[in-house]
Amino acid sequence: MITKERSELIQDCLMQLPETNAAIITFYYFEGLSVKEISTITELSEDNIKIRLYRSRKQLLGLLAPYIMQNTHNHGTAI
Fold this sequence. Notes:
The protein has helices at residues 3-14, 19-30, 35-42, 46-75. By secondary structure, it is an all-alpha fold. The chain starts with a helix and ends with a helix. The longest helix has 30 residues, at 46-75.
């Protein structure tokens, strides 16, 4: 996949997550905010942010898995 397609796919999958979880993933990975900063913005505890990051990554992997497998079989590499 080219970078633009990859980015669009990830954004589409992010939109399938609950809104708060998608925001937390975006803050952490795309905006580079710390757990503490996200906690302040969302008014959730730092532990809750960590739990949501963990669960959201698992959900995101589940949503991306078919594309990863398809791309691996077709081109020999994952997303």
